[in-house]
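Bench log, entry 3. Co-assembly request; chain sequences pasted below exactly as received.
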Amino acid sequence: MSGPLLPGATLGVMGGGQLGRMFVHAAQALGYSTAVLDADADSPAGRVSHHHVRTGYLDETGLRDLAQAAQAITTEFENVPAQALRTLAAQRPVHPSADAVAVAQDRTQEKAHFTRCGVPVAPHAVIETPEQLAAVRADLLPGILKTARLGYDGKGQARVDSPQALAAAWDRMQRVPCVLEKLLPLAFECSVVVARGVDGAMVNLPVQRNLHRDGILAVTEVGAGVVPDDVAQRAVEATRAVAQGIGYVGVLCVEFFVLHDGALVVNEMAPRPHNSGHWSIDGADVSQFELQVRTLAGLPLVQPRQHSAAVMLNLLGDLWFTHGSEREPAWADVLALPGAHLHLYGKAEARPGRKMGHLTCTAAHLADARATARRACEVLG
Ligand code: ADP
Ligand code: MG
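Structure output for the full assembly:
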């Protein structure tokens, strides 16, 4: 194995969204140059990167330019076509690999992988044909029909409570391959971010407790007691098994459901840093984005130390419209709160449901971080 890519080298990322932007920030802080491939001239990551290749993911010239500019390449978006990553991998190290990303892109394959790793998944049925639709067991209803591919933030999903509703929902989804999952009674949700190096070494962030609204992550809390110790331990072990089982290199996040009896059910994985790990920028001494840089460059991984309890609030475009007409939220008032760390992604247009930024409230104790988060919500109104 050759040595690590040291600061001064250029690191590339497929995708120019907010995750790419925070990767770029972390890479630049360590002294790397960066290259982003994204067709949008105004993309959040493209705007702050040294190089910005403005083409689609499958554009041959764009991929060649990225591989020329960057000595190693990662992705910030799980729906980058696996073929694009394969093309890049013929020229440069690419982490995570196209194969690993391909598994995470497809709920059916993803569930099969979890099962192979001995981690329980929700009861479900694969629906790719009318015969499979007709054969769905009644005990999977009420359930959630999810497109096997391309869903995010609750998009590509429908709640169904009868065979008729299921058939109608599948029609509305143009009968693309889907997974029907039983609707589980959740006590809460949590997630774990793990980083795995080329040498197989792994480190992880502490377990994060997540609250979703309308299928979109709204709040993440990290601190003593947010998740019972035994659940946290099982979640970390399961996440490590999932990463190990796929020979994963890079940052991976696994999302879990926790049922009322404490049972842990794996929901899905993201082959990249995750919204629920954003708190680590302000609440830990190594962020999930620095871990992504380290895994990509082949640098040593060190176990992150959480130094503050943290409550992360997602800032959705809705905030811009809370008083009827569009207006800029009261950032100065938010920034007057001790321990409030504002991150805005530089997106020009606010739209309801669009992730515009996040606010991490840190404190020595979780109760204080929660109090700051409550104050921030009042201020943002
Ligand atoms: P996405 O890819 O959009 O994040 P998820 O599969 O993670 O989709 O679903 C989004 C959210 O919907 C979950 O975080 C959870 O709150 C809820 N959800 C999804 N599947 C189930 C289920 N089987 N039972 C109960 N709630 C679910
Ligand atoms: Mg999810």
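The mean pLDDT is 95. The longest strand covers residues 186-196.
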